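Hello again,

I reread your note about wanting to compare the complex against the isolated chains. To keep things tidy I'm splitting this into two emails, and this first one only covers the full assembly. Below are the input lines as submitted, including protein chains and any nucleic acid or small-molecule components. They are followed by the predicted structure of everything together. The single-chain runs will come separately.
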Amino acid sequence: MVTASALGFPRIGAKRELKRLVEGYWSGKTDTAELLDGVHQLRIRHWRLQADKGLDTVPVGDASLYDHVLDTSVLFGVVPVRYQSLQPGLEAYFAMARGLQRPATESAPAIDVPAMEMKKWFDTNYHYIVPEFEQNQAFQLADEPKILAELAEARALGLQARPVLLGPVSYLLLGKPARGVSAASFDRFALLPALLVAYVELLDRLTAAGATWVQIDEPALVLDLSDAARAAYPIAYRQLAAAGQSKLRLLLTTYFGSVGNNLDLLTQLPIHGVHVDLARAPEQLDAVLNALGADQHLSLGLINGRNIWKANLAHALTLARKAVAKLGTDRVIVSSSSSLLHVPHSTAGETAMDAEIRDWLAFATEKLDELAVLAKALNNGEDAVRDALDDNARVAQARAASSRTHNPETQRRLQTVQPSMFKRQTAFESRRAQQQARLKLPRFATTTVGSFPQTREVRQARAKLRKGEWTQDEYAVFIRAEIERTVRFQERIGLDVLVHGESERNDMVEFFGESLQGYVFSQGGWVSSYGTRCVKPPIIYGDIVRPKPMTLDETVYAQSLTSLPMKGMLTGPITCLQWSFVRDDQPRRDTAFQLALAIRDEVSDLEAAGIPVIQIDEPAIREGLPLRRADWDAYLAWAVDAFLLSSTGVSDATQIHTHMCYSDFNDIFSAIKRMDADVITIENSRSDLKLLSAFEQHSYTNWIGPGIYDIHSPRVPSVEEMKERLSAILQFLPNDLVWVNPDCGLKTRGWPEVEAALTNLVAVARALREKA
Ligand code: MET
Ligand SMILES: [Zn+2]
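Full-complex prediction:
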């Protein structure tokens, strides 16, 4: 019999119950018992849901109070020294996750420990807590592993439960050397033998507790692996296979891409089953089928765990039948491509959404239905699920034919894009002269990255508009007042290039999505970003159309208030793409180009209205990089083209800025160069100067504003501190190319600290001008 299961389920809950419970605990409103009981109920609800939908096996251990990688660290006793004096259990756990500050009491000294580092989980927007390893890191299985207790709970409910573990090799690869351990001498795979002892002990205990299959996630198998990493796999899995008196069966799961050249490695491993991602990489099925050992099971990742569209079930069945023909039904599992953690809980609550579009969507709960239908079709024949299959085909057809997805004018424009639209009219040198003549900026020109503090009043104003307590006009009056205050503030501080402050924007992507056709918004489509923090990505369902200017009114109003140059602020096409759920019926490139054309029009309108400087933010360009290096160039080629398409429709005298943050720029340097922005402002105040040496090495010739004020912290940097920072920077960059600015937008900060910090920032620039 073909069985169905998901690799993991969204942990946050239909109504973000996890958020309420955990944040309630942090604020002291919820006690430990309530918290633990609450998450216990939530777990059970999610398992029951999967079983009720007809799935044969439920994952156990995928849920977490904060993060499953942190859970793995705690499971094996990988707790950095600075948390070891805290109470083990929840106190240490949440301190690792988010830091802990507590004033001294009579009996205890003050505690002030920062959080551990957080990083993006592969190419998702989920962030995990980075494990920290000592040179001789010890591993010690927790006395009461949470996964054992959860296995017992699931089994007590009569469910077929499959514990989920992060595999040892991926776990080691995700970590970093602890503070004080030199990266050069650190060999993570030297830790493998000790780590395996702990894994074996855990697998033994899971077997004793009744587990028959364990899911071991090794997503690193879809990456380019070093020789050391490849060598670690056979060592690790030979040892794990012997656990549980060899009775336990291991399902090794890979996801987020093709196993590619790691397939040979995979087939050497003594495991009982393999899971591959057939949503991202359906083409790997044949090779995997051929490589599989005689008794090995294959879990088919058919239902996409990374997007929100209904699957094409006919297509999925074709792939599944191929597997069944080769392996027989008993060795085939139908599954989600990855954990469903990366999609929202259910479309059931989306009552406000356009019904036609809602019919195209499948969130996690609906994806469970799809899995059940696939298994039934394979086991009992398609007639057993005829209605569901017909309905699925009808939806696919309706979507493909809908006038909502296709806009002839957008299509026509896409066809007429010319190579000349990817280039400015002249080279930077000549643009620079023309822009200088127009703007007459001093050396070390000062500016900000765009947003100013989003105070409570600003958020309340937006809420009033949303609830209908305010008319659009009342809201506009409020926003104008905010703009005026922001302009006057910048004049008073003495900045050179001003911004309007972005007070009318909830979020830098959502704001533009709301003004464009082709976007739809969910009410409850929350997806975990980190810990209890969720994001609600907008959904791009159709061709992009800009019905009218999106930022013109506010920007022109802001410019009318001052004789200083006003900078128009736009979000770039790649960032819009990257931070949305994207349609799957055309290449990402095409969607990016459509967005780029809409932004190009906005840029033209701003220029025509006399705005001399326009910034197009691309903070997400780096995170769009594919997981495999071989795919980087193709991505960067169209990503940079999209930026160019959005930004080059202006005359030489109009100055184009871009902004990037959270980036390791070294990887994408030639791409940054090709973007050819007149000015690039970057996040740099936290990262070291290595970043800047890249600009020097690659002889970057356009203007650069390396952030000298870290806006992620409430600290106000002193004049001295920023001066030092800037003089260090000037060792790498020519004086006449440097701008002076914060490292990102100021929207999360308060006015007093922004005033103090920007006053210092301007003082630094002025002092430099006098000196130079
Ligand atoms: C994450 S980058 C943010 C850029 C945006 N213009 C802002 O200042 O908020
Ligand atoms: Zn930024």
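For quick reference: Residues 449-451, 502, 508, 569, 617, 619, 659, 661, 744-745, 747 surround methionine (ligand 1) (CB under 6 Å).

B.
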